[in-house]
């Protein structure tokens, strides 16, 4: 009976420990969220597409020389909602772009969505996928 009690306590301890470790994990799978970005910069120009946050890089100095490498390929979708709040921020929600703004891929490979282009007031704007790092 004593062996059973010790084994039971050990198993119970291991289960509680595993639940504790799992509970401390990142609920969003390690992705950058709108909440993360807007906490650091409430004026950020971002949108969410396919579960990822994209940040406007059009006028970022180091990216200025890179943007000529990217051209619009295929229409992916359109912005559906504008919000300055991170609550309820979901795919096709933006902080700055108007509803109906078209989002384009920059690559024939539909799985490579690191840079997306949007059409805004007759200009192309470049948005980069934010990854945890």
Automatic annotation (TrEMBL):
It comes from the Bacteria. PROSITE patterns: PROKAR_LIPOPROTEIN (PS51257). This is DUF4830 domain-containing protein. It comes from Paenisporosarcina macmurdoensis. The lineage of its organism: Bacteria, Bacillati, Bacillota, Bacilli, Bacillales.
């Amino acid at each position: 009976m004593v062996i059973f009690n010790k084994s039971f306590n050990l198993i119970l301890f291991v289960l509680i420990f595993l639940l504790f470790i799992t509970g401390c994990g990142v609920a969003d799978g390690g992705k950058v969220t709108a909440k993360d970005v807007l906490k650091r910069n409430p004026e950020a120009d971002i949108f969410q597409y396919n579960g990822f946050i994209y940040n406007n890089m059009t006028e970022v100095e180091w990216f200025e020389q890179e943007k000529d490498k990217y051209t619009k390929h295929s229409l992916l979708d359109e912005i559906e909602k504008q919000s300055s709040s991170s609550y309820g921020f979901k795919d096709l929600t933006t902080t700055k772009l108007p509803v109906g703004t078209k989002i384009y891929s920059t690559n024939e490979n539909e799985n490579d969505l690191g840079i997306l282009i949007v059409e805004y007031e007759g200009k192309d704007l470049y948005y980069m996928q934010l990854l945890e790092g």
